[in-house]
Amino acid sequence: MGEPSSGGRIVVGVDGSGSSKAALREGVRLAEALGAPLEAVMCWEDPLLYESYRVVDPEEFRRGSEQLFESTLEEVFGEQRPANLTTRLLRGQPAARLIEESEEARMLVVGRRGTGGVLGMILGSVSSALVSHAKCPVLVVRH
């Protein structure tokens, strides 16, 4: 594992969950304290295929993800988004894409649990994968 970038950006994984909203708030505090740029990232995956039948049009799914991303940012920041905030909507599996992002990041910030199913999990699958495989420090925010 390479050395984390001391001048890189703080990357926050967003999925619309309460935990990711808490991670966004913490990411803002960290970025301000460190004088670092802040990037909010949401990932979306292609909908499942069943025997060559596409259940949902990928473009429709992307638009839905974009709407969720915007509504999450609106809920957390209102009209006053941080000046140092950039956003990106990435296609692909969240853990894999965030691990890629970690290569150039100063730190990843994620919620403890996302929108996935099993109640009572101590650590969500994405946050667990990031803690194990990210190339930079990872802050897991408890909601």
From TrEMBL:
Per the UniProt record, the source organism is Kocuria rosea subsp. polaris
Q: What is the lineage of its organism?
A: Bacteria, Bacillati, Actinomycetota, Actinomycetes, Micrococcales
Q: Which domain of life is it from?
A: Bacteria
| InterPro entries with a match to the protein in the record | Rossmann-like_a/b/a_fold, Universal_stress_UspA, UspA
Family statement drawn from the similarity comment of this UniProt entry: Belongs to the universal stress protein A family.
The UspA domain is annotated at 9-142
Protein's UniProt name: Universal stress protein UspA
